[in-house]
Specification:
CATH topology of the largest domain: Immunoglobulin-like
Protein name: Ig-like domain-containing protein
Radius of gyration: 55 Å
Distance between the termini: 159 Å
Organism: Triplophysa rosa
Oligomer: single chain
Biased composition (Basic and acidic residues): 358-379
CATH superfamily of the largest domain: Immunoglobulins
Keywords: Disulfide bond, Glycoprotein, Immunoglobulin domain, Membrane, Signal, Transmembrane, Transmembrane helix
Number of strands: 30
Bound molecules: 2-acetamido-2-deoxy-beta-D-glucopyranose
Shape: rod-shaped
Domain Ig-like: 124-211, 218-298
Length: 435
């Protein structure tokens, strides 16, 4: 008895040394596709140096491949679809079916025993994916859009993308429990765009795209154009509207339909009967909405010809430029005259310090106009006397009602530049001499 026990003990120890053996490492599981192949290869194959006694692959508890130095056995179910690599003992399984899903185990016996196991999941690839949108045209705030993504095969995930961003659920965007369809209720214009659904499983994926268009409007219908126009000018009023699809337009004048059906209402040459009230109506034939603009008043003005009077922007620009040119011209003239000292500096008091004595004699720069009060009774112009005096220039000055004689103004006296003899009843004005 003691001997027997001792022998069993030795055998047990030997067996533990060999039976516990070496562990062959595999990935935990493999994903295979129906009809395709899979290779179960150990990460750490047994050394090829030692001769093997037995190589065995089993699926569940069914043998798949058994090989001894004497013979190799493959059951009929695996004939023609199984091969085993002679050095790594990797199993290649072809023409996969769903029933190949399960656990696979490899054992190799040399002077040691090597074992390892893994599992296989077989998926049918995703095929025939379709993305179906609503059949009818969508109208903002009124329509519901159901989009459904369907496909064949083992589908393990559904992913939705809109305009290259993930589509997220919201108050109006609701996903079905299996994520295969999305209901947008109601649709808004911002829901327009490219939708994309991807059906996936570990061995395949398919993506389909769908464009959704949400129609809306017309909104913000307005007329742009002048409110005034010169008689005979070209006038164009434009109607604008926010609308999808683009709106079509009609125009009313003073409440009556016109034949104009374009975005622009053009009057080639205005006449006075074109004055009045213009309204454009924008129509969206999908939303079936008609929206009127506010009324636009046009007044055609008779400005005695060519429609001037600041009616068009061109005319305004012209006038402004004209005024600027005139002002510039006057400024230039003043500067020129000042520089050439034709205007006596003394008269520009603040340009000269007060303690500096004014030029004593400026007679050569001063001229006097002799103002005669010898008016003709009918108010005609008066020709001054002594017109032919070479150094004297005369200005014709209209005098008020009174013909009373007036004294010459004091500054002339203080400058001692007064002509020696002044006729009674004559007013003098200081006049610039030209040269
Ligand atoms: C295995 O698949 C190949 C193509 O990959 C095919 O030609 C062959 O007929 C299939 N064999 C079986 C038994 O299904
Ligand atoms: C959209 O889907 C919901 C449920 O998913 C359904 O009740 C509704 O009738 C569908 N609407 C259309 C327009 O298909
Ligand atoms: C794929 O679907 C089939 C039925 O269509 C099922 O038998 C099989 O187990 C599925 N495979 C996986 C990995 O879920
Ligand atoms: C549906 O998709 C969301 C993410 O978009 C995900 O969190 C959820 O688990 C999915 N549900 C199903 C049943 O696939
Ligand atoms: C004024 O112009 C309109 C077109 O804009 C034209 O139909 C009409 O006959 C013109 N009236 C006169 C009086 O010329
Ligand atoms: C259009 O209406 C305006 C007033 O709104 C009126 O002055 C003008 O005479 C009308 N023109 C025509 C052609 O009816």
């Amino acid at each position: 008895m003691m001997f027997a026990c001792g022998l069993y003990g030795i055998l047990l120890i030997l067996c533990i040394g060999q039976c516990m053996g070496q562990v062959l490492q595999f990935p935990d599981s493999f994903d295979g596709a129906v009809g395709e192949s899979i290779v179960f290869a150990p990460d750490n194959p047994p050394p090829t140096s030692s001769a093997f006694w037995l190589i065995r692959w089993i699926f569940g508890d069914q043998p798949v491949f058994t090989s001894t130095p004497a013979e190799t056995n493959i059951p009929p179910a695996y004939t023609d679809r199984v091969t085993v690599d002679t050095t790594t003992h990797a199993l290649m399984l072809m023409n996969l079916t769903f029933s190949d899903t399960g656990t696979y185990e490899l054992s190799v016996q040399t002077d040691k025993i090597y074992t390892g196991q893994t599992s296989l999941l077989v998926y049918e690839k995703v095929t025939d994916t379709s993305l179906t949108g609503p059949g009818e045209l969508l109208i903002e705030r009124k329509s519901i859009a159901n989009i459904t993504c369907e496909g064949n095969g083992n589908i393990t995930s559904v992913q939705w993308i809109k305009d290259n961003n993930p589509l997220n659920p919201s108050v109006s965007i609701i996903f079905s429990s299996d994520n295969r369809s999305v209901s947008i209720n109601p649709v808004f214009r911002s829901d327009s765009g490219e939708y994309q659904c991807t059906l996936r499983n570990p061995v395949s994926s398919e993506t389909k795209k769908l464009n959704l268009i949400v129609n809306y409007g017309p909104e913000n219908v307005l007329i742009e154009g002048p409110n005034e126009a010169g008689l005979g000018s070209l006038v164009s009023l434009s109607c604008f509207a926010t609308s999808l699809p683009s709106a079509s337009f009609t125009w009313k004048f003073n409440g009556t339909d016109t034949s104009v059906t374009t975005e622009k209402f053009t009057i080639e040459k205005t006449n006075l009967t074109n004055s009045g009230d213009y309204v454009c109506t924008a129509r969206n034939h999908v939303t079936n909405q008609n929206v009127d603009s506010q009324s636009h008043i046009l007044e055609v003005k008779d400005n005695g010809g060519d429609g001037g009077g600041g009616l068009t922007t061109g005319a305004i620009v012209g006038i402004v430029i004209g005024v600027l040119v005139a002002v510039a011209g006057i400024c230039g003239l003043i500067v020129y005259l000042t520089k050439t000292k034709t205007i006596p500096k003394v008269s520009l008091g603040k340009n000269k310090p007060t303690n500096e004595a004014p030029p004593r004699r400026q007679e050569h720069e001063l001229n006097y106009a002799e103002i005669s009060h010898e008016r003709k009774s009918r108010g005609e112009g008066v020709i001054p006397r002594n017109m032919n005096e070479s150094m004297t220039e005369y200005a014709q000055i209209m005098h008020g009602a009174s013909a009373k004689p007036q004294a010459p103004p004091p500054p002339y006296e203080s400058q001692e530049s007064k002509p020696s003899s002044l006729p009674e009843g004559v007013t003098y004005a200081q006049v610039m001499k030209r040269s």
